[in-house]
Amino acid sequence: MSFKVEILPDEKDVFKQSDDECEQLAKTLRLSKQVFFDLEFHDVSSIITKVRNATGYWVYSRTLTTWCLPREIAEQEHGKWCLYDDPWPFHVGQGTNLDNNWLIAVIQTIARKRELLEHILPMRDYTKDCGIVQVRLFVDGKWQVIKIDFFLPAAKGKSATATTYRNQFWVAFIVKAYAKVHNHYVKMLAGNAKVAFECLTGYKKANPDLMWRHLIENLSCSRLMVASTPLLQKGSDEKKMLYEMKLKCDETYSILDFKTHDDNQLILIGSTGTDNHKNEFLPIYKIHNKLSAADQLEAEKRLFWFRIQDFIRYFDYLYICEYKEPMFEKRFLQQAKKTDSCQSEVLCLHIKKRQKIAFEVCSAGIDDKYRLPLILNIHREATNDNCGELIQCFYQYDIRLTTEPMFLDPGTYSLFFVSDRKFAGLSLKWHVRSPTSLDSVAIFFNLFPQSVFIKSLQTMIAKNGTVENNKKDNIVIYKLLKEKNAHFMMENSSEANYVRVNMNLSEKWLSIPPMSRSIIAIIPVSDAEKYDDFKIKYQICSWYKNPLNWFYDSPVDQLECPIPLN
């Protein structure tokens, strides 16, 4: 018995060898004042495309084309031609005569991936003056350099295979190299995006473990899913393999359940026909044996377990529906009341058994035009002295805040809501929803000191923000960027010294006593701004050393009140 082992060369060596060969060829061409013409791929006098006939049906039509230089196709108003210059997805489109949208759509996705684009189509001086174009494609399980010339099929003076927007020819060259791999442009009429992605990136298939986690996550969120097989060319090997798996091409199947069996990650697939699939993994359902004999037979005809590896291989499309379960709902109107200015109402729940619950809250009487930064912190076992354990925090920049359903274990929960830096004197509309009855859940309002609201917000910043620890000054600075607001908090762990702190955006100074922390700023930010744009200045001092400073410190608002460390 004999066998052959092929040791693949390192891709860097492959690319360097091609570069060296092209440089040598360019020297020869420059001496003879000629340009490169690819004799291996030039016999394209026509291109087949799909057009609508007089009756409105799609038919295949052959269009005569001629090989043209880039300068003959380039539009004069946009200057000289180039490979690419700040390419965007909207620069990428099909040519005038080639139906290859599956490839063009994939090329659109790499338009803003500059490193990947430069890897596939490196810029070289000899491309423009000698007509040598290198395109790196992943073919037959390895990276190869496809060398082509810069002549392109054209019809009526325009590129027939891909757009050359603002005289950028990178798309047309990639399409030509792909056509050369398949020996003809006509072969591109039947292709699929999965193969194109592999060819351009080298990544053949999705990671099964990541796909498994993605599917499980969607199922656990009660989302509905179906998957489709690709449309394949008649007589192709891919179509034969699909039929061997008892699957049809261009067919949609339902995704119903998941399980693991003997180290196999399995997906329960539902077929709309009775295709007599070979069920390697039984039973179909946990209650399969309790079904009638007729139902068992019908289930085995229409349902079958599929390995995750085979699912990734044979299915091209996954459709997910954001289905919302029917919910039991209770609504509450929290009206602003004139109470002790140091206390505010909080919605509370006492849960006796584990239950899935979702919340929605908005300010009553606020115009729907105005979107505001909204924060909802859910704490367990809060008291008048402490906000308790932070279970979940939600942040939205909107007119209302809506949470995903979550499971809450038995206990008492308090919901601290902050709207646009305010928590006192708010009139709120609350919606509490659950897929099961809320009759066993006690829902009520409780009064909490404003210091507990502040502790809740401080806990959220400390838990989710970045930390800068200055041990020398006994200072800790927390920074949290949420949507359109940046939150800054300072902790003074000194037992004797006070801290005076100032943000560079104003002249306001805040005082933080020993062993306490304070939210020093909540600042609206744009997407372009970063933490480095906001400078924090502070002074370490004692009360008796510099009393005038304390007299001139600005008064704090609700959220900036210092809170002692526990």
UniProtKB/TrEMBL annotation:
<dbReference type="GO" id="GO:0006508">
    <property type="term" value="P:proteolysis"/>
</dbReference>
<feature type="domain" description="Calpain catalytic">
    <location>
        <begin position="35"/>
        <end position="324"/>
    </location>
</feature>
<dbReference type="Pfam" id="PF00648">
    <property type="entry name" value="Peptidase_C2"/>
</dbReference>
<dbReference type="InterPro" id="IPR001300">
    <property type="entry name" value="Peptidase_C2_calpain_cat"/>
</dbReference>
<comment type="similarity">
    <text>Belongs to the peptidase C2 family.</text>
</comment>
<dbReference type="GO" id="GO:0005737">
    <property type="term" value="C:cytoplasm"/>
</dbReference>
<dbReference type="GO" id="GO:0004198">
    <property type="term" value="F:calcium-dependent cysteine-type endopeptidase activity"/>
</dbReference>
<dbReference type="InterPro" id="IPR022684">
    <property type="entry name" value="Calpain_cysteine_protease"/>
</dbReference>
<dbReference type="InterPro" id="IPR038765">
    <property type="entry name" value="Papain-like_cys_pep_sf"/>
</dbReference>
<protein>
    <recommendedName>
        <fullName>Calpain catalytic domain-containing protein</fullName>
    </recommendedName>
</protein>
